[in-house]
Automatic annotation (TrEMBL):
<dbReference type="InterPro" id="IPR002931">
    <property type="entry name" value="Transglutaminase-like"/>
</dbReference>
<dbReference type="InterPro" id="IPR038765">
    <property type="entry name" value="Papain-like_cys_pep_sf"/>
</dbReference>
<feature type="domain" description="Transglutaminase-like">
    <location>
        <begin position="150"/>
        <end position="252"/>
    </location>
</feature>
<protein>
    <submittedName>
        <fullName>Transglutaminase domain-containing protein</fullName>
    </submittedName>
</protein>
<feature type="signal peptide">
    <location>
        <begin position="1"/>
        <end position="20"/>
    </location>
</feature>
<keyword id="KW-0732">Signal</keyword>
<dbReference type="Pfam" id="PF01841">
    <property type="entry name" value="Transglut_core"/>
</dbReference>
């Protein structure tokens, strides 16, 4: 046998020994790119082989996952209680330990967060709503010509018209910097002067002040996941309909509102409960992101909002310039959390700009969803 052949075999031997010792399945590849069939969904070139990452974890909610390299494949039956490991042997020498791990979907996590405590009697400040007679709100109504935008239809049609108008005049840009002055007129002015967009919080701030200026009681709601540290949450609006005697869901970022099987408008509380119980939810057909990506009930509600309806937070005072920071200002919030939430106590802290922030936590949904 040639010396080069012997050396080659010796090079392969450690890899083979590892496989034999661990008795794990092995598939081969000559390219680092892998396609994956995750449940019914086929994702082309969705995975990159990384031998240095041990193990390289692939999370999934599916019951079965198939990996396709350029020369081989393997199907894994996913077990919720135990990760499934296998090796990908790249170019006959680099072994990548790959782990398929079950992770519950965001909807499954939300379903476990059903329980609240209606007997939570912790003292909370009362929600307040600035009247339309306020000088700043009267200016917003006049300068932005809100009466013309809202139209002369019924209450719900006016609410939808205002929401769609904000969606149309402000481009959503989740990475944009927040302005110093956080009110409707200044935010819209910056959009026009700098030809830029704003994040969902600023869009909801604008819509909230427009609703207040038109005499509608409203709040903007920060919708958060279970994790206390996260890279993404969402902010939408809840506006109270005197005709329906209920809060109604309005999302200017996605031009979205939600209905039941009868076409009746729903609020955040109802949407959350229906997601958990599996009841019918209908998204308006023209829901979209930046007039580019249409939204469906599955993508918007079952996935995105199921993640973000775990914890909910509103400012105590719904008013003009709610979150504009001024030294000495105090901004209070109320956060509704389920019984299995990671945060069960409020907090108080002061920013570098000498603004005091207070978060009150409650498990009592009746207090959070109190009618104005």
């Amino acid at each position: 046998m040639k010396l080069s052949t012997v050396l080659a075999l010796l090079g392969i031997l450690p890899v083979c020994t590892v496989f034999a010792q661990q008795k794990l399945p092995v598939i081969r590849a000559t390219s680092t790119t892998v396609s994956i069939k995750d449940g019914p969904n086929f994702r082309k070139n969705a995975w990159t082989i990384e031998p240095a990452t041990k193990p390289d974890i692939y999370p999934t909610t599916a019951k079965r996952v198939t990996f396709y390299t350029d020369v081989d494949s393997i199907s894994i039956t996913v077990k919720p209680d135990r990760p499934q490991d296998f090796y990908i042997l790249l170019n006959g020498k680099d072994s990548a330990l790959t782990r398929v791990r079950y992770e519950p979907s965001r909807l499954e996590i939300l379903k476990k967060a059903k329980q609240y405590n209606n007997n939570d009697k912790r003292e909370l400040p009362a929600f307040t709503y600035q009247p339309a007679s306020d000088t700043a709100l009267k200016r917003i109504r006049h300068d932005l010509k809100l009466d013309s935008i809202a139209g002369t239809g019924n209450e719900i049609s006016q609410m939808i018209n205002l929401m769609q108008w904000v969606h149309n005049i402000i481009r959503h840009d989740g990475g944009s910097d927040n302005p110093t002055l956080r009110n409707a007129i200044d935010i819209i002015s910056i959009c026009e002067k700098e030809n830029r967009g704003f994040n969902c919080r600023m869009m909801a701030t604008v819509l909230n002040e427009c609703y207040l200026a038109m005499g509608f009681k409203s709040r903007f709601v920060t919708c958060m996941p279970k994790e206390l540290k996260f890279n993404d949450c969402h902010v939408i609006n809840m506006v109270y309909s005197e005709e329906l005697k209920k809060w109604v869901w309005m999302d200017p970022t996605f031009n979205a509102y939600v209905m039941n099987e009868k076409g009746e408008m729903l609020g955040l509380r109802e949407v959350r409960e229906r997601l958990i119980s599996g009841q019918t939810l209908i998204l308006n057909p023209d829901a979209n992101w930046n007039k580019k990506n249409s939204q469906t009930k599955e993508t918007y509600l079952d996935n995105y909002m199921a993640k973000n309806l775990y914890r909910l937070e509103c400012p105590v005072g719904s008013m003009y310039d709610t979150e504009t920071t001024v030294a000495g200002k105090q901004i209070s919030y109320i956060e509704l959390v389920p019984l299995d939430a990671l945060n069960q106590q409020g907090e108080k802290w002061e920013s570098k700009k000498k603004v005091t922030y207070i978060t009150n936590v409650t498990n009592n949904p009746d207090l959070f969803w109190a009618k104005p």
